[in-house]
Amino acid sequence: MSRQSRKELEAELGREVRGWQVDQDLFDDVLAMLAGLNRTDMRCLDLVAQHGPMTAGDLATAARLTSGAITAVLDRLEARGLVRRVRDTADRRRVLVEISADLDELSAPVFGPFLEDAQRKLDTYTDREVDFLIRFLRDNRELLVRHTARLHDLLAAR
Fold first, then answer.
1. What is the pLDDT of residues 121-146, one digit of tens each?
2. Which long-range contacts (CB under 8 A, 24 or more apart) does 30-37 make?
């Protein structure tokens, strides 16, 4: 078996990452269709699920949406019973958006089998390999954040 050169390895890694991105996008599309939501609504739902309760303004910033757009997103998600708006107990003037208690039950048939398969795959990796994957993903997310901001700046300059 011949060893690939560094350049060949990097090219293969690039192909695999791009393939993963397409596969993730296709998965997200069918997930949104199954949930009867659009991709923006799904992204906002995921942001709240990841970060916990947040204000509509913070969610709008995280999703790069206007205040009008985030209001429409939250209205749709709340009507579906996926999120709820609650008063902040520390500051009654603030309203927080949080995931509804029903979301886990609603998403179990979709994510349960996927997460079980993913866990079986993850169990085949050593701790060192998992540490490496975490570092790889963090590094790439940092690049994505930085270059997404740069592209938004280019768009705004048009």
1. 999 999 999 999 999 999 999 999 99
2. 31/110, 34/110, 35/110, 36/80, 37/76, 37/77, 37/80
Number of alpha carbons in the 13 Å side-chain half-sphere of residue 38: 6
Q: Whole-prediction pTM value?
A: 0.86
CA torsion 134→32→71→145, rounded to 10°? 30
CA distances from 62 to 1, 32, 46, 145 (A): 47, 19, 11, 11
Lookup result for tokens 């029903």: 102
Sheet with 95-99: strands ordered across: 54-55, 95-99, 83-87
